[in-house]
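so the lab meeting is tmrw and i was supposed to have these ready like two days ago... anyway. pasting both below. for each one the top line is the aa sequence and the line under it is the structure tokens. i havent really looked at them closely yet so no promises
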Amino acid sequence: MISDVATVCADATLLVATTLMESRRVSGLPVVDAHRRSAGILTEGDLLRRVEIGIAGRHGGGGQAGVG
């Protein structure tokens, strides 16, 4: 089991999240709130769906990583 789990804040941009995913070589990240409580998970599949439904790149700053 890994003790140094990579997480992303709910208000992080998608650029931050994807950079972290790439650098850690993971396909998903737990999303945490300001109190480091679990708020969800962001996966490569979520990012691919953004492209498929045509909403990728519409938001300035790379979009938000948080879950809805």
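ok protien two:
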Amino acid sequence: MRVLVVGINYAPDLIGVAKYTTEFCESMAAWSHDVRVVTGPPYYPDWSIPREYRTSWYVRERSNLVDVIRVPIYVPAQPSGLKRLLHHTSFLISATAPLLSAALFWRPDIVFVVAPSLLSAPVAALAARLAGAASWCHVQDLEVDAAFEVGLLRGSATRRVMATFERWILKAFERVSTISPQMMAQLEHKGIAPTRLREFRNWIDTSSVAPGSRQTRLRAALHLGPDDIVALYSGAMSTKQGLELIVEAAATVEEKHPSLKFVLCGNGPARSTLMEMSQGLNNVRFLDLQPLDRVSELLSTADIQLLPQKAEIADLVLPSKLAGMLASGRPLVAMAKPGTGLATEVDGAGLVIPPGDAAALAEALVTLAADAALRSRLGAVARARAEQKWDRTSILRSLEREFMTLPQCAPSHAARVPQPATSMRSIEQITTGSRRRPDETGRLASGRSMRPPARSLLSAKERP
């Protein structure tokens, strides 16, 4: 099966949507599907493109069996509402040529678009139609609603126009998926038929992120004592999380509870403001985002995981960091209204407090800090929930099976012909650079399309 993926965020960005798009693509490729992704350069959460990726042209690379086409985009240093719109518009414009080229010459079996960026979805739907491929839109954030709720966009007339545009886009796809039942209900309310909706939740590799000793190298590097109780936030630092509430809670408890320490790990536009707010507080530490091979250690450093969220975006997003927090086997303190998706996921695995309430956050942290048995009990529930509902392989295999139910993705009789099993590259692969991999005996030759391949006319610079 040939899968064409469209998403503005991809590795080497470490967090957020990029992590899940990358792991989805790499898993599909590892399972012998041909995967091509059209994406932008890395920039998140710093909103800055690394020097080695700065170019005004297309760049093509091969990463973990995935063909990656990076398109030039505008990335604002300070992302306001209008600048974000221009940012997504630049991706739409730049992604059009490689998308249509892939549709006409590479001939995918399915076109899978990740929102954000929803603005690129119409071209993805057109590409699917031109290729005769299945079309699938995966909604990580209800970005239009979220933009208005947090004040990035304003005006009732503008909101009506954007809502109409969003509904029109989503209805163009055969399947629309999202990451929680509550967000599925939001999409159904927008007019998407339930028969076309699927839940495709985020995940965590529960074998690589697991409960570990709290006495980590990171704890020592941050000058945290063995008896300190560490409350950790790890993720992007932007305006929508309400991270200033963590600093306010730290100021509240510093004098009476000196062993309660706060670690804010991440990067983003709000970091400098948070650091200014924290001046003079001895119980707050800042840490840059950690590489993937240190995520488990980072999460184990914590005694309590922090998940702030603004009330305005409840059920418009489900924080992607939640899966890792649960897998760490540590209790959570989450800001959420009762009945929301986040509150439901955290129930029994931590304490749920009202959004925007720094005093409630401080009180919850003091309660957990004083009760090791409670922390242990809630952490055990968190780990069990991660294994039951958030396991990476189970979720992605389920999505793969959904793909194969679509008529455009059903394997042909020819694709079922057994081939000799081999783990080596064939002469064809070496001499032609073919992406097709040898198939194991009796397994679907799922990397093959039912359409004849043709060479793409897209010009692209090859990354060394």
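from a quick look at the 2nd one: Confidence is low (pLDDT under 50) at residues 413-448, 450-464. The chain has 16 helices and 15 strands. will dig more after coffe
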